[in-house]
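Q: Glycosyltransferase, please. Structure only.
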Amino acid sequence: MFNMKKPLISIIVPVYNSQNFIEQCLKSILNQTFTDFEVLLINDGSKDKSGSICDSYIKDNRVKVHHKKNGGVSSARNLGLENATGEWITFVDSDDYIHLDFLKNFCESINNKNDFILQKVVRFDDNKSNEIISYLDTEMDQINFLNNYSLHPYYSAPWSKLLKRKIISDNNIKFDPKIAFGEDALFNITYLKYCNSIKTINKVGYYYRDTPNGLSKINFNFENDKYLFHKIKSKLLEYVPENTDANKKILEKQLIYVCGRVINSIYAGKKKNDLTKTSSLLKDFFIENEYIIYHLYRKSKGLGFILSCLLKSKQIFLADKLLKHIIFR
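A: Structure for Glycosyltransferase:
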C-alpha cells in the first residue's frame, strides 16, 4: 500500500464567523517559506461564509477542512489534534496571520532536546501595532520558564508556539471544553509538565488581531474562573510542589491573574452582596491561597498584608469589607 509522507508540522486553525479575515490568515500560511506542513481548518459551525471560503482552499493538497456543529474553540482545536498527522503542532486563530518565516523560525530551533518552542507576537488593530510577547534566544527548563513567564492571557494563548504531537497524544492532553476562558493556559501548563527543554526565539512570527469579538474576549464568570484556578493549581503542583518559598513564588506568578479574576467574579461589580454566600466562597477558596492574595494586593499600601492576615485568621466579614474597599475605591 502506498503511504504518503507525513508533514513535519500540522497547523490547526479553528474557524468561527471570520469571513472578513480568514483569507488573509490562509494566504499567510500557504505562502510560508517552509513548506513541509498541513493545514487543518476546523469550521466550528460558522453562520457566515467562513465555511465556503475554507472549502475553496481544498484545491491545495496541504489543506484539510473539517466542518462541525458549533461547540466552542476548545472542541474545534481538539478535533484538529485528533486529525493532525505532523510531528509538531502549532495553532493559528482565523482572524490573525503569521510572518512568512513563522514555520522556518520554528524549524531552525528543532533538535533532539527542545519540546516546546515559542516566538514573539505583535498585537495590531486598525490604528496601531505593538509587541506584546517578547523573548530572547534561549533554552531553559520548566522551572526557569515558569519563573520568567506568567499565565497572562497573551503568554498562555496557544498560538505562536510549537508543540510535539507525540507528547500531546501519549499523555492525552486536550483543551477543556468545560471552560470558556483560560482553557489554553490549562493546556499549556499540562503540556509543560512533560517538557525537558523550552526554546524561545527572538523573532516576531505571529500577528494577533485585536478585535472586539475576538476569541479571547470573555467576561468574568465565577464558576469558570474557580474551576480554572483549581485545575491549573493542581496541574502545577504535580511538578512544582507547594513546599518551598521558591516554589510558592512560582505559584504566585502563575496563579495571580486567575486569582484576581475569581475575586472580581465574586463581586461582579456589585458593592452589595450576600455576605453568607461570599463568606462561603472566601472560606472554601481563598484561605488556603492567602499567600497568592497577598501577592495580588501587595502594592495596595499594606492592604495585601492585612487581607492575608484576615484570611489566615478566618475573619471573613472583615476580609469581605477590605476586598470591597480595594476593588471599589
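A: Brief note, in case it's useful. Strands lie at 9-15, 37-44, 63-68, 88-91, 97-98, 114-124, 129-133, 138-140, 161-164, 197-209.
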